[in-house]
Write a structure and sequence with these properties.
Elements (H helix, E strand, L loop, with lengths): L14 H20 L3 E2 L5 E3 H5 L11 E4 L6 E4 L4 H12 L5 E8 L15 E8 L4 H17 L6 E6 H10 L4 H12 L3 H11 L6 H9 L4 E2 L2 H9 L4 H17 L5 E5 L12 E6 L8 E5 L13 E7 H5 L10 E4 L6 H12 L4 E3 L7 H4 L1 E8 L2 E6 L3
Parallel strand pairs: 1-5, 7-9, 13-14, 13-15
Antiparallel strand pairs: 2-4, 3-4, 5-6, 6-12, 7-10, 8-9, 10-11, 11-12, 15-16
Length: about 400
């Protein structure tokens, strides 16, 4: 096997793609900064227990694990930065009011999330701690849409869901955890036949008719705003669900002017093990999978001894960059090798300070093709001028 081959779903990012990713990163981070989100840089490695805190059992299979040679304890390479941000908020910042944090760095997965995805996403995210109201959910979702807009994604469909719809049904009915997980798996897979079998056989003695009918209805509650109307009629006997529907309707009305389409999925249980309220996913026509995910997760800080209301979003910058039409890779100015020419040296410094790429051609080398130079510095009548590259 050639030693320069990379593992499957691991890739190098070459200059033009790296430039596009970095340009979008700067645009997004500048957007987050002016909204008051403070940048944090968690470590790549942590003890596994910390990385798994509040993330659910599925995260354990996604983390690469190594043994710490100093302590002998098991460490993991982060597969998601959300638990790390929650740890920072809970213990290092330890603020009582609202805290806004953001991050941008690589994470690593043992297997790709989707067949078209990498095992090394570049995760960008924003998290808001210390506020439990619908206003913070709305702020996070508006912020996501603004970040997508500055990245060049203009056509967005926002899909909204609410974990409390399913959770209130199972918790109010006293369903045992093992049956809850079976129901969750069937709903998440939209496996209506398995769901019907669970509800009508194994759980029939534990559930009254109203709950059974509500669970069987959930996979059908997907679509436009008429879904909320239908849900209100059929699930009116559950106060928590009515409140969740009110929140979904409020957010949808507020965000309608900023998106092409808003849909609802009341059986969307993505992140069920740690999400506690509204969840959302952003889609665009150019991608078969979601380009950003988020939601409320008020209990994640509990694992660190300080539970705080929290909501946020994250996206993979590598995936996002492939959906944009940014093709303005800058061309360079070629300068001759004349270190003794003070005027040339001063001009090169000035051009670079203005943001121009200036490449000095080393003796015996041809930098034109390598650097993508389309202009050059030429001495004319004792003065250096920028001219098109000569043939």
């Amino acid at each position: 096997m050639r030693n320069w081959l990379l593992p499957e779903y691991i890739e190098d990012v070459l200059p033009r793609d790296a430039y596009r990713i970095e340009k979008i990163r700067r645009l997004i981070m500048d957007m987050l900064f002016v909204h008051g989100y403070q940048l944090v840089m968690p470590p790549l490695l942590e003890y596994v227990e910390s990385l798994l805190a509040g993330s659910g059992s599925g995260m354990n299979l996604r983390i690469f694990k190594v043994v710490d040679q100093l302590s002998g304890r098991m460490m993991g390479i982060r597969a998601d930065m959300t638990p790390q941000a929650a740890r920072i908020d809970a213990h290092l910042l330890n603020a009582n009011g609202v805290t806004r944090l953001c991050y941008a760095s690589s994470i690593v997965h043992t297997v790709p999330d989707e067949i078209t995805r990498t095992r090394e996403p570049f995760q960008v995210g924003a998290e808001l701690y210390g506020h439990s109201g619908i206003e913070s959910d709305l702020e996070i979702q508006r912020l996501l849409l603004e970040c997508l807009s500055v990245s060049g994604i203009q056509s967005v469909c926002l899909d909204l869901g609410h974990i409390r719809v399913f959770r209130s049904l199972v918790h109010d009915s006293g369903i045992k955890p093992e049956f809850e997980m079976e129901l969750y798996a069937a709903l998440w897979a939209k496996d209506t036949s398995t769901l019907r079998e669970l509800v009508n056989t194994g759980l029939s003695k534990r559930l009254d008719k109203t709950v059974r009918e509500a669970l069987l209805l959930l996979p059908e509650l997907y679509g436009d705003e008429t879904i909320l109307v239908r849900a209100r009629k059929t699930l009116s006997g559950f106060p928590d669900i009515s409140e969740a529907l009110d929140q979904l309707e409020h957010v949808a009305q507020a965000l309608k002017p900023y998106v092409d389409r808003i849909t609802f999925d009341l059986a969307d249980l993505r992140g069920y093990h740690y999400h506690t309220g509204m969840v959302f996913a952003a889609y665009t026509r150019e991608s078969p999978v979601a380009i950003a995910l988020g939601g409320r997760y008020d209990e994640i800080g509990k694992s660190f001894g300080r539970a705080r209301p929290a909501t946020g979003f994250s996206l993979d910058l590598k995936q996002l960059s492939r959906l944009t039409d940014i093709n303005d890779y800058p061309r360079a100015i070629l300068a001759p090798w004349k270190p003794q020419d003070d005027n040339l040296t001063a001009l090169i410094g000035q051009l670079r300070a203005e943001g121009h790429i200036v490449v000095t051609e080393l003796p015996g080398a041809n930098s034109r093709e390598i650097a993508g130079c389309d202009r050059e510095l030429v001495l004319q009548n004792g003065e250096w001028k920028i001219c098109p590259v000569s043939g």
